[in-house]
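[Q] Does anyone have a clean structure-token version of this?
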Amino acid sequence: LTKREHQAMFELLPPQRAALLEQGLLDQAKTAIVIDMPTSGGKTLLAQFRILQALNQFDADDGWVAYVAPTRALTAQITRRLRRDFEPIGLRVEQLSGAIEVDAFEEELLTDQEKPFDVLVATPEKLSLVIRNKNVPRTLALVVMDEAHNLETEARGLRIEFLLATIKRDCPQANFLLLMPYVESSETVARWLAQDVNAGKAISFSTTAWKPNERIVGLYRAVADDSERAGWRLEYETLTVTERAMKLRGTHRAGDCRPIAVPKSKVLASGRQTGFGLQTAAMAAVMSARGTSIAVANNINTVWNMARHAAGSVSKFEVIPDDVRLVQDFLKTEVSQGFELIAMLDHGVGVHHAGLSDEIRTLMEWLAESGHLRVLCATSTIAQGINFPVTSIFLASRFVPQGRQSVEMSPREFWNLAGRAGRIGHDSVGVVGLAEGKDRDAIIDFIRRNTGALASRLVALLDDLAAQGQLNNLDAVLWQDQWEDFRCYVAHLWAEKKNLDAVLAESEQLLRQTYGYTTLRNDPAQRDKADALLNATKNYARKLADMPGAAELADLTGFSPEGVQKAMSGIRNLEEQLRPDDWAPESLFGDAGRMADLFGVMLKVPQLKQQLEEIGGDGFDHAHLSNITRDWVNGVRLEDIAKTYFAQNNARSDTEAFTDACKAIYRAIVNNGTWGVSALSRVSGMDFERMTETERRRINALPAMIYHGVRTEDAVLMRMNSAPRSVAEKLGSLYRDAFEGDGGRYSVGKARIFLKNMSPRDWSRARPERAPLSGAGYKKVWEILAGEGS
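[A] Here you go.
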């Protein structure tokens, strides 16, 4: 740690010292530890100490560690950090893609007896597939769950709870380390996961006097300023302050008159607050003089608009830093010369949202970490990805999108985001603000709410049913979408036992592995809910007995048993049946390929349908999806995909079209298109056993080609190792030439060593003609993305 070139570390923070020396973080008798620590308190470093201990403890069993993070961006960030710290001491860190399938290359990585990794970084969905299918033939020593408070969220809470329950059941030797901020009574979670009642340990610092940063939290609003025509300015009113920031209590003027170039009517209409995104951009621009300031909005169009106004308000760099110039050259090469973000970066203004590629978001984080961003405009998803110092955070709204509606963020989500403001070890005070908007009292109440204990999503669903008087009707409700993860959990037991009597006999034991059922069963007042859940579980098991093969395929594909049946029915009902040669990459992604038929089937599967339908664009249908996917795999530039499918006859701006193209590819096609193709190949009836290894690998590589946007296996290996898409095919060709005839060529680790050893001249040989990014620039970008640089 002291030898790091970037962010070298010479002493531990007080809670880190306490966790290691006083609180028993490294006590081998504790099999489940929950660390509850304020955001920015240094949880990741504590996880690294526990990882080293677990690998040492399970060394004789070739133990491995799973590090689980909720988003692709955070898994990439964690991978970079762990590689930077662990690879110098000989520990190998690998990252699985965010796709909900295990492709041919990942399969090889996971099953390799040569121990190609010590730590595996993955999303909960990906690790769930790996555990259920027993892909890794070694002992799982430790599971680190980052941002573990997601256990209570509506979108993924059940999935995370059932992942942990499955690991408890299928990997009885595994230890657990859960990292979370602002959770009261976290010892109940530790006891749930521990191997016996005394083996759980909660290490809590959220309620101690120590704080990682000094911080003020308050409201901001626009007020009239008659010093010029249509003038206005901002006021900031503090609501909560840390002890050493007491002198900042009160109401403060923020900036000068008209901090961004909009008239008063855009932020103050007839005395009422309006234009909250504009107010947020103005606050971030004003406060950027103190250091990186983040402006958060709940939709992507507002984020772009905030960035435009912030860039118009913040002066240009006198000399553009080399790091900023590097990112600009990357954007010119990978997106287009006229991409709007390039000019914003001249002012030190960046953007971060789902309408950008993972690489662009990573480079935005890298610029912020390097201190080159003055303002970063983002959606609220950045709360689970900030691992860099910021001095202030401003939110246009306390509401966040969830599906097709907006919901109020939980107090825990808010404080997890707010806690990022302020730098450890610096004198500056972190400033957090919410736009006062039209409901001042509601916002004050929101900020003062407690975070509370962690609640099981399973319990929340049963509480809702009980409140509606529907508890006895759980059998009928179980078919609804929100119970999908539960059905998959029960199906996993069926896939293992394949016998109704055995499943019925073990149903209660299966439920006892979950946090929710354990909580209900231990509370006499809640026993009726536990009984209802057990009865519904047994009744669902009886239904699975009438669905032969569905549970096994559910385990294999990640679909629910009902999704498997719909997929099988869709494949059977195609006008022209799919033949094995239809699945060959050159056939499937060719002009006459059957990709459109596959998307037609996917749109009938509930788990895939909604996200795919959200793509929209010109003339949406399964052929539209197929054409976008085909172009993506065949190397068509994102700029051209945006113009072809999302420009709506030039009625929309380039930025809007590009944003929608990125959302379509990185949200829908990369996630659900990849998952769908993988799952449909499994339920298609193809006899994989009779294929040659080459044929089998090529079909298993299809999802990875879609995920990474390339058309050859060698290019997939390059992309898996963070090579930019614009050079992946040429790099793959160089790799193929270098390892022609090598049976072990399709190795993720071998490909990374190949990339690591390439010189800037080698990178120049792969770069597109007239690309603004030089060979040395490509090498530097790759080092940043792969975590191979300092």
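[Q] Thanks! Anything notable?
[A] The chain has a mean pLDDT of 89.
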